[in-house]
Amino acid sequence: MTKFGAAQGIKRVEDFKLITGQGRYTDDIVLDRQSVGFVLRSPHAAARIVSLDATTAKAMPGVLAIYTADDLDADGIGRMACAVPMKNRDGTPRKDPHRAALAEGRVRHVGDPVAFIVAETLAAARDAAEAIVIDYDILPAVSDMRAAMAPDAPRVWDDATGNVCFDWATGDKAKVDAAFASAAKVVEIEVENNKVVVASIEGRACNVAYDAASGRYTIYAGTQGAHGLRNALAPVLDVSPDKLHVITNDVGGGFGMKIFIYPEYVLCAFAARKLGRPVKWTSERNEAFLSDTQGRAQIMRARLALDAKGNFLALDAHNIADMGAYLSTYSVFIPTMAGTKVLPSVYKWGAVHAQVVGVFTNTPAVDAYRGAGRPESNYLVERLIDKAAAVLGVDRVKLRQKNMVPPSKMPWKAALGSVYDSGDFPGTMKLALEVADWDGAKARKRVAKKAGKRRGIGVAYYLEATGGAPSERAEIRFAADGMVDVLVGTQSTGQGHETAYMQLVSAQLGVPFDKLRVIQGDSDIIKSGGGTGGARSLYSEGGAILAAADVVVTKGKASAADVLEAAASDIEFANGVFSIVGTDRKIGVLALADELRRRGVDPAKVLDGAADWAIASHTYPNGCHVAEVELDPATGVVKVVRYVVADDMGNVINPMIVAGQIHGGVVQGIGQALTERTVFDADGQMLSATFMDYATPRADDAPDITVVLNPVPCTTNPLGVKGAGEAGSVGSCPAVMNALADALSEWGADVDMPATPERVWRAIRSAQAKAAE
User: Fold this and answer.
1) SS3 of 752, please?
2) How far apart are the first and last CA of the chain?
3) 103-to-41, 70, 319 alpha-carbon distances in Å
4) Shortest CA distance to 63 belongs to which of 34, 36, 103?
5) Residue 286 in contact with residue 40, Cβ under 8 Å?
6) Whole-angstrom Cα distance, residue 725 to residue 617?
7) Is the pLDDT of residue 1 over 50?
8) Which of 12, 119, 568, 624 could form a disulfide with 561 if both were Cys (CB 3.0 to 4.6 A apart)?
9) Strand boundaries in 406-483, DSSP class E
10) Residues 82, 332: contact at Cβ < 8 Å?
11) Rounded to whole angstroms, how far apart are CA atoms 703 and 412?
12) Does this model's pTM top 0.85?
């Protein structure tokens, strides 16, 4: 084991740069003859554009150009489309409205881009936007997905009857129906996964330059994968991907939202080519609320069939998913194929069936948000199991344990076809309950009640299914300055990739950290890349790094044999050193590179390694969350006071990074459960479009979070790792809400997410009033 090798809790090497203000984000890029773009957005959720007059605005000082949909259309700019094909359950195609970068005669949500102003300064662009005169014919809007499905609801798209985008299903309905027909008990629940705003620290931004001589665009953008944006943007601009050079520097958070193509990227590229000058656009926070993709937004119903002994027979789910006004890149995939993949969770269902209906509303598009469908499904299942335990009058922990897949059954083929390669679900749950002192909760409840408070404790087991691109590439290059460059196709947005990858290379090749340099986010430098999303980065890029390191070792043995004057078959490699078997003659890998240069041999030809690694199977992280909350009945204020997570992430490369990722995901779940509420009025106006109105969790909303690991190595990748980046958000919402339900049990009150103080207070008062009748 090297000093900085795998399985060690090393502090992140990238943090010093980032926390001391030395990061380089997209807005920090200033190019020669830089101009600034500003998007004029619709103030209405639904309206026809009767006329648009920009005559006065175009003549204002500093204004370079003002573009509308007609300008883009005349130039052959294409439309943005959802990348996921899908058939309805009756075999017909889903609705597939493509989106223009600027509204074509009609706006469909507040914030819909209508015109793009380019000026010398942002102030000049803003002033020009104020001078544009637009006559809107305001139309009825619908912002609630239930209301959108009503027969007389306004249509977001004329050809979408009932505003339905798709009606999709999976599973064996006949088998499920038979199980329900024979069930001794059926339990039902309806829950809502409230719509959330992503609220990344760094807003979206892009800066585009165009070179007329080569016909190439250079695009600086905060993405979750430079190659993904390149490949999505190329057909819209009607160019081949090689004409786009995408560069992503430091990124201040992504959470799924920065994977996608957006209108602003198209607009900056178009304007840069037309003007012959770089064009930069940077989102402001209020703008982000109205133009970034949003997350979750599902109404979920499910039925659970049980036999007389409490065994789970079948699960039948019916979900409604809000798509917003436009289909984002992967939007239809999230509530369907992504979400239902984990619907069976860790339990021995005989059969599972799920139907998902996607609905258009006059609101911003909804797409992947940390966990991307899996938090929603886990929330539904874990809330349903708690309700079943209450209806049956049995212990909620024992009901789960009775129905869990045991380790002896691994690999396990779940009811919807996924194959779990490894896991110890009962053991991980037992560990979580012990660390959380589950049995001691009764005493803590008594103490809280004496103080006028109520305590509740909740448990939730989660299963996560990682995903993403089917392969990844890595290159290891011995640079002329003596450094070893590690080129990767994933993209860090704050997860600590650089540190983890350095640990892998150090462990494989014995190169110290101070000689390693991770290079990412440049579509020209590295040939391909799957980007970051679906908690895939470590096992996908890690597999590629191992393969590339093997190439280095193989090539290095031949080069070392020449230097050491021995046969290649007599060379062995260990801990960064090539040596002749049975002798003390040896040379380190870095010294070998130096010696090759001294001899006039380029290490790139005889030592560098590159590899494409195909992902045989994605991974199934899992774990148990135990939350304890304290409720003030007089005010409805709920505080999470204790929190324990026991996780199976497979082998762990850096436990400190894993714990940090879990902490972040848990806090996002706490925010969704208790504070974050996205509100639109009946006219589609967003009433929670600032941080004065939208309550992201603050430091005092989060407790100390205890993380313990119960690693069961994954069998489908050479590192034995399972994805960690999204797991915290997958299990946290049901754990918190189950704890709150426990705290409210004496009144029989019920409340769903977000459990704001007002909602909790009203639920208690309503339950008290009913009891008094």
Assistant:
1) coil
2) 70
3) 9, 10, 30
4) 36
5) no
6) 17
7) no
8) 568
9) 412-413, 419-420, 454-463, 471-478
10) yes
11) 35
12) yes
